[in-house]
Structures are given as C-alpha cells and as structure tokens.
Specification:
Trefoil (Acidic Fibroblast Growth Factor, subunit A); mainly beta; 7 helices; six-stranded antiparallel beta sheet; Alpha-L-arabinofuranosidase B; signal; Jelly Rolls; ten-stranded antiparallel beta sheet; glycoprotein; disordered N terminus; AbfB_ABD_sf
Length: 522
C-alpha cells in the first residue's frame, strides 16, 4: 500500500481550516516579542529519530507539537457546544507547536471538547472518542481548555482525562499484532493521577473487551498497585498487558528503588516489548535529564504472555475493556514498528527535554492571560505572605528569597482567561498543570479542571480596584458579593459581614486587597 508522507496530510472534510489564524498568531507573536524558538532543530523530531534508527512510528499523537519535522497537518479536532461545528488545530508551522490561539478564537464564547487526536504518521491511526466496552459505558470527549501549558514558550493545550473520558482506534494500520515487536512512549504528568483502572496509551483489543492475557501492550501510568509489593507512593510507569499492571515478569516490582516518579509536572513514560520473551520499562523527567530503566527482562511468567497476542487497536485514557475510572494527562506519544534501540530512546528523551515543557510564559507580574504572578497580602500583619497551595488547600504563607523551590512554586500562578467568563481571570498552578484555584464550600482549593460549568464558575474571579484603595480585589464569578480573602491564614470567598467567622468586617477591605507581582518561581 502506498503511504503518504506525514507532511502531505490533508485536513478532514467539513472541518474549519485555521491556517490564516495561525499566520496571524505567528505575526502577532513576532511583533509582540513573545515568540519562542522554532521546534527543536526541525530536522529531527521524535518520529524522525525513531525512523532513522529503523523503527518508524506507526502512530504519532500530540496535542502540543508536531512529531515529524515536516508535519504540517492537523494535530487534533475540537467541537464547540454552541453549534456543534468542528475545527482542526494544527501547528503554527511545519514541525512546530500547536496553534492554541486558533482554538481560543474558534471556542470563544462557548466551550469545546476534543473529538479527535490525529495520527501524524502515514498510517492515519486517528483516535476518536471511545465507545462502550466490557467495563465501561461510552466515553465523552475531554474539555479542550482544561490543561493549558507552556511548551517551547508557546501556550498550548494538553489533554486532561477525567473518569469517563477516553479515545480509541479499533481499525489501525501497521500496529503490532500477535507477538510482533513494538515500542511506545508518552509524555504525561505525575500531578494528575489516581489509583483507578486504567490510564493507558498503547496497544489494545479491537472489540473493547478483555479477550485474555497478552492481548494488550500499553503504557500505564498511575498509583494503582495491581501486584504487591509496589515500593513508594508512585505514580509508576507500568505495562498493561491485560489482566494486570506489570512492573516485572512477576507482576510486582522486583526493583525496590523504583518508588515512582513523584509529582513531576511532566513525565516521559516508555515501554518496549519484543512480543516474545522480553519487555522493558523506562521513565524520565520530561523537563531535564535522561531515562531511568526500572525493568528489563522476561515477559510475565503467567500463561498467555509469552508470546504476546496483541490485537493492534490503540487506546488512550482507559483500559482495553474501557475500564474508565482513571484520570491522567496526555501531551504527546508515539508507537513504533519494532523495538527502538536505547540510543534512539535517549535521543528522543533529549528532544522532549529540548521542547521546553513547562518553561516560562514570557510574561510576568500582570493580570494579562499567560502572565505568571504571585499574589501578596496587603494587610499590615501579613505583607510578606502570599497565596499558595499546600496539599490541595489554598493558604496564606510567608515566602522569601530564601524559601525552598517548592514553596516558591506553590506560590506562583499562571493567569488564564476566566474559565466561565473571558473578561475575568482564573489562576492555574505553576507546578500542577491543569489544576486551578477554585472555591468549594467557601474555601479555596487547588483542584484539576474537570470541564463542568460548576468548576468553571468556581474557578473564575473578576478583578476590581482594591477595596482598601490599594492593589486588586477579586470577586467570585458566581458569588459576586464575595471576594477572595485571607482569614486566619486560610483562603475563602468572603462577604463584608455575615454569619461565618471569615465574613467578619474587621480588616475586610485590607484582607480582600492583593498586590499582583512578579512570580516567585523562576
């Protein structure tokens, strides 16, 4: 079969081409001086590197950037709620980063969900919203704006999976079947995980059912320990080979030093399997450094895994039978024909690091969307205290130049357009991508955006002149007489007088007035 080159990919019929918007966005970025360097050495992106090593990509999915230097087709498709129209979002240029401004323009005044993630490889193994399976009802698409991140200096959007969301392609081309060798990786996040089954990316059954041991070969990432013992708290990179999440041939971890990745905001998770008698697991910090191998050895010793019996479907966000209780983040991932060399894996990890996940936005100290800020109290007692998250609670805490990196990161927020009203603002955590400051039962929390109207309203604040005559006050979008306030070092939305202690009129104007300043995190 003649396969088209990746850059020759045509856009889907009926979708709205946004190339003109892409050009305008690029020119605007250049004029404003906020443009970032082009995609790393546009001659060798992950699929170029794997192809040169003799293990070409048979699937290449990304929300944030092209994975071939020559690719200039669609990355993903969004559908807006207002009229059901769809649009493909592509890179700003061949081999470049996603045109998030085009998505923002298309979805302005309404909400959008991601309906398709296009395969950049010539195989066209596109992922669409997953249907019902043996363990779960039909899924829904992820909200398109739930996971804003900065990659290579560009604001882009990742895919934030909540329970009940997932994507799949049951009719693929070139993906390993019946014991054939393959490799795969994904860039995910260690801050948006749970212990439910199963946040997977990779090879799965073609009928959305559990058809037996060895019928899957997918990366799993989360805190579910299927086979005890697992060491540490996770999350762990594991192999979902069906009927088990494997850290070794025995299932349980044979590596006591593998305590998981911890809460890294960006993680490279990698699996490769020769389909006969060997598989390997690796992980790395997608922002710096190399890969760590946590297992390299025989297939599981239980029956059915040696040889493997892969069926060749591709799944993202669920288990092979649509077990869909998991949460997770997806930014990019590929699958290869054959097992990549360690050298190729290392080159791909270096390219991922060079892509600039989670780098500075290029704007600081203002309430403009994309600006990184810290919010300082102006009450006389507390002028050295800042809004931060501690665990998932919003608190007021002292931060100084000698504070730890963790404290400084926890006190840094990225200003986003209001999730419920674009004329207002929302505050995204700097070190927990996709988590926003929102109120619940009047308390402020850091929580992942789930796309619901309730969350959007709770996480939206409307700036006003400071009630004390200085700084800025932030009215709750859905409780407009209540303002973001510190009280006893906790954070609330509070009225000026009321039945709660935190509604006390004493020092209320000062407590709801905040100084917007440069971020503590570098």
């Amino acid at each position: 079969m003649l396969l088209r080159s990746p850059h020759a990919r045509s856009r889907r019929p009926g979708s709205v081409p946004l190339s003109l918007l892409a050009v305008c966005a690029t020119l605007a970025a250049l004029l404003l001086g906020v443009g970032a360097p082009p995609a790393a050495a546009a001659s060798s992106l992950p699929c170029d590197l794997y192809g040169a090593a003799g293990t070409p990509c048979v699937a290449a999915h990304s929300m944030v950037r092209a994975l071939y230097a020559s690719y200039n087709g669609p990355l993903y498709q969004v559908r807006r709620a207002s009229d059901g129209a769809t649009a493909n979002i592509g890179p700003l240029s061949a081999g470049g980063y996603a045109d998030a401004a085009a998505q923002d323009s298309f979805c302005a005044g309404t909400t959008c969900v991601v309906t398709e993630i296009h395969d950049q490889s010539p195989r066209h193994n596109d992922l669409t919203v997953e249907g019902a399976g043996g363990a779960g009802a039909a899924d829904v698409g992820a909200p398109a704006d739930a996971l804003p991140v900065t990659v290579g200096g560009h604001q882009v959007y990742g895919l934030e999976i909540s329970a009940g969301m997932g994507y799949r392609d049951n009719s693929t081309s070139g993906v390993a079947v019946n014991g054939q060798a393959e490799g795969m990786y994904m860039v995910t996040s260690g801050t948006h995980v749970n212990n439910r089954c199963c946040f997977d990316y990779g090879n799965a059954e073609t009928n959305n059912m559990d058809t037996g041991n060895g019928h899957m070969d997918a990366i799993n990432f989360g805190t579910e320990c299927w086979f005890s013992p697992c060491y540490g708290q996770g999350p762990w990179v594991q192999a979902d080979l069906e009927n088990g999440l494997f850290q070794s041939d025995a299932g349980y971890s044979r590596n006591s030093s593998n305590t998981g990745t911890g809460p890294l905001p960006f993680v490279t998770a990698l699996l490769k399997n020769n389909g006969q008698n060997h598989f390997a697991l690796k992980y790395g910090n997608a922002q710096s450094g190399g890969l760590t191998t946590t297992y390299s050895g025989g297939e599981p010793t239980a029956g059915g895994y040696s040889p493997m019996h892969q069926e060749g479907a591709i799944v993202l966000g669920t288990g092979g039978d649509n077990s869909n209780g998991s949460i997770g983040s997806f930014f990019e991932g590929v699958m290869t024909s054959g097992i990549p060399t360690d050298a190729a894996d290392n080159a791909v990890q270096a390219n991922i690091v060079s892509a600039g996940y989670g780098g500075p936005t290029g704007s600081t100290g203002t309430l403009s969307p994309g600006s990184e800020i810290s919010l300082r109290a102006t009450t006389s007692c507390c002028t050295g205290h800042y809004i931060r998250h501690q665990g998932d609670a919003g608190v007021l805490s002292t931060v100084t130049s000698s504070s730890s990196s963790l404290d400084k990161n926890d006190a840094t927020w990225i200003v986003r357009r209001g999730l419920a009203d674009r004329s207002c603002v929302s505050f995204e955590s700097r070190n927990y991508p996709g988590d926003f400051l929102r109120h619940y039962d009047y308390r402020l929390h850091r929580q992942p955006m789930d796309g619901t109207a309730q969350f959007r309203a709770d996480a939206t604040f409307c700036p006003q002149a400071g009630k004390s005559g200085t700084g800025t006050s932030f009215a709750s979008y859905n409780y407009p007489t209540r303002y973001l306030r510190h009280y006893a070092y906790n954070l609330y939305i509070a009225s000026n007088g009321g039945s709660h202690d935190f509604d006390s009129s004493t020092s209320w104007p000062d407590d709801v007035s905040w100084a917007v300043g440069a971020p503590w995190a570098p």
